[in-house]
Amino acid sequence: MRSKPVPVAILTVPETSGSALYGMYDLFLSTNRDWEYLTTGKPGVEVIRPVLVSRCGEPIEVMNGVKVAPQASLADCPPVEIVCVPEITVPPGEALQERFAEELEWLRKKHRDGAILAAACSGAMLFAEAGLLDGYEATTHWAWCDEMRRRFPKISVQEHRALVVSGEGQRLIMAGGGTSWLDLALYLIARTVSVEAAMQVARVWVIDWHHVGQQPFACLARSRQAEDSLIARCQVWIAENYTEASPVTAMIQMSGLAERTFKRRFKQATGMPPLEYVHTLRLEEAKQLLESGEQPIEMVAYEVGYADTGFFNRLFKRKVNLTPAQYRRRFGAVRRSLVTQLEGAAS
After folding, report:
1. According to the model, what pLDDT value does residue 216 have?
2. Which residues face 9 on adjacent strands?
3. Burial of 281 by CB count in 10 Å (0-12 exposed, 13-18 middle, 19+ buried)?
4. According to the 3-state scheme, what is the secondary structure of 288-324?
5. In sequence order, what are the beta bridge partners of 52?
6. pLDDT recorded at residue 339
7. N or C: which terminus of the chain has fewer CB atoms within 10 Å of its end residue's CB?
8. DSSP state, 70?
9. Between 6 and 293, residue with greater pLDDT
């Protein structure tokens, strides 16, 4: 056991959520303390000391109206070994440089000083914007992965992974989307205190590691309507006709464009080649069928447009990181549990 608690700064900005901010704060404070309390009746000694840090150190309101009282400003932040960045709830594509200019410079300084920098969800975009991820592997929330890849081509975006550790000295740590901040906190506890301490926290809080990554939770984030009216018309058509045979050929004919011109305009407008767009629509529908029904996998494949079940299985596994059967077991059980609970409450 270390003689002094590990000092951790949690960056606090208005664009974050109270759950990630205080969730990480609580997990860090819980380390060693709560396990000892539950098993011996006496709180264990503090082994991690988190501090909420904001630009000015003054009370702010974060997402959903949660009031936060930071404990230090960027300028007054005490020396820390770890800096944690929760998610930033801004739309993919929105400019970050001016909005977070002071925070970006502070992150660069902390990195130069030797701190471990850890980001949850879309918070990794601040690392990218600060120029800290060039040449390294990274991950972020699935809705931001394409944006990170587009704006920062020197970064190797690992969208299938829930946790990525990279950079010089392995000091850049990123968790994927949503509640993967739980994984991030557990990893940091294991790295700076001990694996056993992290396991104790997981048991106290009943945390299940997101070992399958974030792809099973992703949806067609890039399906928003294109500004290109011709491509937008094709999007409307394919949303209702993606099970058709040769749907890309049908869209090309509908557009009246040459094949190469259509494919170029479609990708420019939507961020995806037309065939990948079709596959993604089909797989989203397949997820819904797998969650809500019991029909054979072969029937699910056929209903969404695949006559070759083997091809469907391979594509699903590659894109979702689970086989169709694994996806059904995992998310079908969740759906059934929710329905059962709701029906029970209504009776």
Report:
1. 47
2. 51, 83
3. buried
4. HHHHHCCCCHHHHHHHCCCCCHHHHHHHHHHHHCCCH
5. 10
6. 58
7. C
8. -
9. 6
Q: Are 228 and 265 in contact (CB under 8 A)?
A: yes
Q: Per residue in 198-226, pLDDT tens?
A: 878 887 887 765 554 445 445 544 455 55
- The better pLDDT of the pair 206, 158 is held by 158
Please state, in angstroms and rounded to a whole number, the distance separating the CA atoms of residues 164 and 158.
Answer: 8
pTM, to two decimals: 0.67
Q: Look-up: residue for tokens 């045979």?
A: 245
pLDDT of residue 221: 42
User: CA 214 to CA 194: how far, in whole Å?
Assistant: 26
Q: Which two tokens stand for residue 114?
A: 């030797």
Q: List the Cα angle 115/121/123 in 5-degree steps.
A: 50
3-state class percentages of the chain: helix first, strand second, coil last, to nearest 5: 50, 10, 35
As a whole number of angstroms, the distance between CA 186 and CA 251 comes to 47
Contact call for residues 300 and 337 (beta carbons, < 8 A): no
Dist CA 137 CA 155 (whole Å): 6
Q: What is the pLDDT, as a whole number, of residue 163?
A: 81
